[in-house]
């Protein structure tokens, strides 16, 4: 453990010295020079204390760093991490916002700030953080998928669809972006388009449980439970001994409140998994849904 901490400190010191030599600290104005050696010493010691779990002491050292250089974005980032660990959302957001203002394109700063906004259900601000990150890192397409999901969550369906369509056109139908597009289309109420996309996925992998689940969900949204059930019937017909598919059907029957058929199917699933369970299954409210025998 001590060796690992020592290596991290050496690496941190080396990277930080390199940063100072290249004058990467943004916004430093004439007349605001500071003792770089003293700053580095305090910063590395603060990192050491943080890694050892002495967060209170580490925070004091980082505060001393800001006295020497109040425009150190890395220091604000470290302080944000510490106070957030202690549950201080207010100061955590204050520190990480300052770091992001000093380095607007920094991915780590934007992601941490976005996570705080998400926790506060401030989707507009979280979206701004992701938009900045996508602009700074256009090659990171996972960020674009995450941004599209935020757009959809915020009911900006057109923006989400346009973003995901571009990725689909680039890579073709695929599980990552196409399923996100399907979710957006379902949320938008465009069930026909969502159905077409899912069937393109199923053409590649007809027995994929997730793809079939999305197709069944679309039929349920359209008020066609019999067609949703037929999706599972065909899936089980092709894979009669697949317990995972049987469990997926159990979830569907539960959502349809078809408890009689669910009871019969559960016995089959439990035997397939060779599971011994208590003699009842409860819903989230704690009330008993069905009673099943314990299996030895």
Describe this structure in words.
The protein has 296 residues and is mainly α. It has a domain at 1-7 and 37-137: Serine Threonine Protein Phosphatase 5, Tetratricopeptide repeat (Alpha Horseshoe), CATH 1.25.40. Helix content is 73%, strand content 2%. It contains 15 helices and two strands. The chain has helices spanning 2-21, 36-51, 55-68, 73-85, 89-102, 107-119, 123-136, 141-153, 157-171, 175-188, 191-204, 209-221, 225-238, 243-255, 259-273; strands at 281-282, 288-290. Strands 1-2 form a two-stranded antiparallel sheet. Strand 1 (281-282) and strand 2 (288-290) form a beta hairpin. Helix 10 (175-188) runs antiparallel to helix 11. The two termini are 46 Å apart. The model is unreliable at 17-31 and 275-296 (pLDDT under 50).
List the SSEs and their pairings.
Elements: H1 2-21, H2 36-51, H3 55-68, H4 73-85, H5 89-102, H6 107-119, H7 123-136, H8 141-153, H9 157-171, H10 175-188, H11 191-204, H12 209-221, H13 225-238, H14 243-255, H15 259-273, E1 281-282, E2 288-290
Antiparallel strand pairs: 1-2
Helix pairs in contact: 1-2, 2-3, 3-4, 4-5, 5-6, 6-7, 7-8, 8-9, 8-10, 9-10, 10-11, 11-12, 12-13, 13-14, 14-15
């Amino acid at each position: 453990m001590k060796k690992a901490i020592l290596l991290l400190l050496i690496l941190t010191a080396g990277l930080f010295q390199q940063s100072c030599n290249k004058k990467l600290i943004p916004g430093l104005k004439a007349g605001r020079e500071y003792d770089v050696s003293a700053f580095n010493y305090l910063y590395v010691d603060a990192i050491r204390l943080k890694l050892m779990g002495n967060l209170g002491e580490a925070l004091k050292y980082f505060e001393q760093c800001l006295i020497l250089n109040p425009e150190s974005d890395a220091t604000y980032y470290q302080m944000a991490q510490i106070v957030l660990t202690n549950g201080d959302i207010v100061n955590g957001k204050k520190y990480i916002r300052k770091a992001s203002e000093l380095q607007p394109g920094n991915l780590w700063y934007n992601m941490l700030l976005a996570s705080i906004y998400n926790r506060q259900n401030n989707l507009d601000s979280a979206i701004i953080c992701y938009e900045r990150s996508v602009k700074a890192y256009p090659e990171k397409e996972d960020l674009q998928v995450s941004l599209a999901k935020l757009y959809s969550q915020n009911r900006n369906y057109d923006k989400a669809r346009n973003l995901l369509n571009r990725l689909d056109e680039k890579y073709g139908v695929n599980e990552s972006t196409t399923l996100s597009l399907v979710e957006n289309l379902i949320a938008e109420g465009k069930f026909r388009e969502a159905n077409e996309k899912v069937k393109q996925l199923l053409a590649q992998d007809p027995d994929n449980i997730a793809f079939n689940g999305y197709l069944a969900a679309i039929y349920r949204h359209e008020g066609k439970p019999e067609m949703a059930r037929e999706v599972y019937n065909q899936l089980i017909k092709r894979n009669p001994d697949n317990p995972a598919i049987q469990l997926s059907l159990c979830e569907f029957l539960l959502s349809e409140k078809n408890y009689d058929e669910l009871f019969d199917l559960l016995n089959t699933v439990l035997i397939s998994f060779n599971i011994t369970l208590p003699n009842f299954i409860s819903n989230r409210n704690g009330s008993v849904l069905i009673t099943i025998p314990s299996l030895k």
